[in-house]
Amino acid sequence: VRTINDVDTERKLEVLLQDVKERSDYKQDFLTSTNNLQFRANRSAEAGFHDRPMIIAEANGGIPTQKLLVNDVCLDQITTDAGLSTKDGRRLSNEYPREYEKLINAIWDKEPKNKLLRTYENHTEYNQARAWLSDKFKVFDHETMVESIYQPLVESDADWEITSGAVTDMRMYMQFKSRRSVAEPAVGDLMALGLNVSNSETGHGSVNISQMIFTLVCLNGMQTGNSLNKVRRPHLGRRNENDGMLAILKADTIEAQNQALRYEIRDVMTHMSDKKTFEEAIERMSTAHGRTIESPANEAVERLGQVLNLTKNETKSVLDGLINTLQQPGYAGSVGVSQATLVNAVTAVQHTVVADEKNNWQKLGGKVLELPRTQWEYIARAA
């Protein structure tokens, strides 16, 4: 009988679950109208002001006054909700804090709207505001996600093993590879079926469960747009009823909203070991191994960067990834650079970026595999 220890041989999942649990213990969510709140910008240069932006919610209905230090994620959401770009908001907050404070308070007072304010209790005078969301936001948190996939993960005939996991201020990520669904699209290039699980408590992505592919020698993960099974459910539900006054969003309300999604996730997990879609993706990789470029490798990478809309630094990272790829089994000693080589060059960048950017590079790798003919020819036939 398989247990969670079979999935988590290196205790990566255990560490992640402990992080999720510790964060869960400090969560508190409020529903309120913006005209019941005051915003204070970062005015650390002035006596008596804290070195972080702050939201103050006056005592109401038995709830004591809340002084909430605003983290960067929440500040960016406050800014965009006010109709400003995050770039302009950060500049105003840092360089013109008094003017920024007056602007936000004026908008909150003259254009009131009900918001879901997600916080962490620090058990000090100042708690932390971590997300500024619509009152339609459906709370489906990381611990609920973990509970929903836990049993199907252990019981799956895919024989899953965790490869990585992280919890950031914006998202939770977990990725697993199958020990059983393994294939070789080219000699030496062993690949395995993978499972990608992600969620956001702060409005930065849907509940997501999807198949992916791993190159085993380097654990480059790739997420394709068309080839593999996936399910995405946005955090959007019915408006949370509130009269505009400060109120705590109750745990039983959250649980009632989440029950149906819990069952759906358990059902979806049973299809994530499906080999048919994995075999189709492997066939595409096999074809990609046979498509070689006629142009110099550096020129092909430059054009690939244009197609993928990468910055100069990102394109350089892909070139570094290409150099690494050409030294690994399945690619070392091959004649020329292939489409499959470029797929791995792109996905290799995931090992050099922060957790919140890792998925983007995995998806870009899938995009390279699924390039339309005209774009591939533009890259492969560079003058």
From TrEMBL:
Record-given protein name: DUF932 domain-containing protein
Pfam family, one: DUF932
InterPro entries to which the protein is assigned, alphabetical: DUF932
